[in-house]
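Hi all, a correction to my earlier message: I attached the wrong file for Mitochondrial glycoprotein. Here's the right sequence:
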Amino acid sequence: MPRITPVVLNKAGQVLEDLDLLKVLRSEIKHELSFIPFQSKKGGSWGEFAVDWDSSQSQDVVLRRKYDSGEEVAISALLGPETLGTGSAFPREVRMKVCVRKPGLNSLLQFDCGVKEKNVGESQFAIHNAYYLQSIACSRRSAYRGPLFSTLDPHLQSALKDYLVAMGINEGLTRFLLLHLHKKEQGQYVNWLQKLESFVGKGD
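and the right structure:
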């Protein structure tokens, strides 16, 4: 009878660990593919905006819209940290940055916003900060970016939000961003799991 050496025992233990890991990975993949919480949700629409960037390898999406007047609106959005205890089907808020540029000017308005589910099938956005930037270079932290949005007159806060709605930042768009970015993240997670499975199961 051949002697079982520590090397053989280590290899056997590694095989068992790999098999356990494979079982867990395959179970998680099966769960993710069978339980798709966002598929039944209404997706909204990006309206008049065009998709400027939406790589499957990145977390963000960039939308742009140019008016006949030459005015441009750019939106950059990605998921923020998970918000616990909200009871929402969407566990994370969308962080949305909206930039508005007038034709012939280097200056722009920048709004930092958050998008979340209001009620089932509805979304809402809130402005966290609003900046007037003389140029792109003024976005550096050392430049004065204006007062805290929450300290502005409530009528001005409301008027600025109405301004963004008029620029196309509406319910359909925010709903699209909320759903699209959650689905994108889930797809990236499943893809990552499948790559791990393929690596661990190599030669299985």
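Sorry for the mix-up. The CA atoms of residues 80 and 93 lie 5 Å apart.
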